[in-house]
Amino acid sequence: MSLGFEHIDVLSDHPLNSTGKAMYTGKAMITFIDHEIVESFLYDTTGIKGKSRIDVEEDAQKKELQISELLLDFEVLKEEQLQKTDNYFVHRFDGILSRKYNADFGYCTLKYKSLIIEWDELIDRAWFEER
């Protein structure tokens, strides 16, 4: 499975980043080798009315969603390695779904043997670096 990104942030300690600063790239691709989708969920807030603040994990309805729907215009906000063994990795990706899904939060968990990250160039300092 390959996922395209408008950009990714490459941390300062990455071996292919010699700038000493976290940098963002142009378009990028991440390919998961021998992968399995463990879970894929949307926190649906469409039924919540009259609340000025929503705690999605408590207030929203958690719905299983096909990975192809979840990842359509998905913006990754957080990535977490849940498990690592000699044979595979398990990562969870949390983020915001497309407008089709009210820009609600969701996540997917993937199990895979390896991954390939590709980008053409480091463009400028990442948003969280001092400019």
Model description:
- The chain has 131 residues and is mainly beta.
- The chain folds into 2 domains: 50 residues, no CATH class; 78 residues, no CATH class.
- It has a 5-stranded antiparallel β-sheet.
- Strand 7 and strand 8 form a beta hairpin.
- It starts with a strand and ends in a 6-residue tail after the last strand.
- The mean pLDDT is 92.
Helix content: under 10%
Helix-strand makeup class: mainly beta
Number of DSSP strand runs: 11
The dominant shape is globular
Question: Radius of gyration, rounded?
Answer: 17 Å
Euclidean distance between termini CA atoms? 35 Å
Total number of domains: 2
> How is the main sheet built?
5 strands, antiparallel
Spatial order of the strands forming the largest sheet: 6-5-9-8-7
Q: What's the tally of helices?
A: 2
What percent strand? Answer: over 45%
Low-pLDDT segments, ≥5 res: none
